[in-house]
Amino acid sequence: MSRTFRYTSPPPPQSATGRVAEVYRQLGEDFGIERAATFVVLASAPELLAPAWALMRESLIAGAGTRTDRELVAAGVSLANRCPFCVDAHTMLLHATGDHALAESLARGETPSEERHARVLDWGRATRTPGSPGLTPLPFPSSEVPAQLGTAFAFHFINRVVSALLTENLLPGNAQRLRPVRSLGGRSLARTVRRDHVPGASLALLDDPGPGPAWAAGTPVGPAYAALLEAASTGAGLLDDVDIALVEEAVAAWDGSHPPLAWDELPDRERRPGARLAVLAAVAPYRITDEDVAAWLKPPFTDHCLVHLIAYGAFAAIDRIESALPLPALMERP
């Protein structure tokens, strides 16, 4: 575990009980990987774990449309966010769908040969930029908007958590970079990935979050999104009013670009370490350093607090993207 996790030591999955144990059970049954590091890292803050899983399950796994399209959206998001761990994971999952040539073109950094696949991948990439013109026209039926947006937002969150708190090693020694390993790993998940999954199974893990945003159109994606928003927002309680204002100002000004190395607007590490971590989590989590974490993670703060602070920053970026969506165009029904 120590080779996978940075800055936190999550509770061992085998010690899990209650809601956390049920998340791991559903992960094994519906995702095929019971102890996926992307979720184990959230176990230090169980109140984040269940809604993060629910949003991914109800969109990527049980949402409308083809799993291939949803994997391409997730891959596009992960490419835009510069999260190699997640790009590798979705490459392997495309092998699981049976789209082997598509998976390998992604692994080589190529544009998919099928135009429609290329458009779906680009749409996923475009979701990083608030108000991007690349979000319309849709490359899939409008009836799939809840699943595709839910997938995009799930991975805007997961990418940021992974980049901040995990290493890049999806498998030991980055073995997933080898084609036979990618293919074999995907094939081992094929039965789970290709099975039909009943929508809504994860909602019992949530505490009555409400129906969610309009774009979710009454699907189970809505309550899952609302629950994750509520849980992530509590991380603001770790900051004072000045910190919160700094985070809100930085994220409101963010245009989806990756910040320059000389980034004058980034809060100072010594004077405002909490605000700095939250802003980095929102905009460039891959730039969080040991020094950034050490400057803030001191008593009384714990692993639980760090996960919440990263989640707060991550969802601040998602809220910025979501608030700029061209909803009338996205929700138009043919």
Explain the overall architecture.
With 334 residues, this protein is mainly α. The protein has 15 helices and no strands. It has helices at residues 18-31, 37-40, 46-61, 67-80, 84-97, 100-107, 115-126, 145-165, 179-194, 221-233, 241-253, 273-283, 290-296, 303-323, 327-331. The longest helix is centred in the middle third of the chain and has 21 residues, at 145-165. The mean pLDDT is 94.
Which tags fit this structure?
334 residues, mainly alpha
Topology readout:
Elements: H1 18-31, H2 37-40, H3 46-61, H4 67-80, H5 84-97, H6 100-107, H7 115-126, H8 145-165, H9 179-194, H10 221-233, H11 241-253, H12 273-283, H13 290-296, H14 303-323, H15 327-331
Brief overview:
The protein is built from 15 helices and no strands. The chain is mostly helical.
Radius of gyration from CA coordinates: 19 Å
| Main sheet attributes: strand count, strand direction, barrel closure | none
Approximately how much helix is present in the residues?
Answer: 55-70%
Based on CA inertia axes, which overall geometry fits? Answer: globular
Distance between the termini: 49 Å
Quote the beta fraction: under 5%
Question: What is the average of the pLDDT values?
Answer: 94
How many strands in all?
0
Extract low-pLDDT stretches. none
Determine the structural class based on helices, strands and strand pairing: mainly alpha
The helix/strand order is HHHHHHHHHHHHHHH
In DSSP terms, counting alpha (H) and pi (I) runs of 4 or more, how many helices? 15
